Amino acid sequence: MAAQPKAKPVLHDYWRSSASYRVRIALNLKGIAFDRVSVDLVAGDQRHPRHLAVNPQGLVPALQIDGLVLTQSLAILDYLDETRPQPPLLPSAPAARAHVRALALAIACEIHPVSNLAVLARVEALAGAEARADWNQDNIASGLLSIEAMLDHPGFVGRFCQYDAPSMADCTLIPQLYNATRWGVGFSHLPRISAVARACAAHPAFAAAHPDHFDLRRRQGSLRERA
Question: Given this model, what pLDDT does residue 5 score?
Answer without folding.
Answer: 55
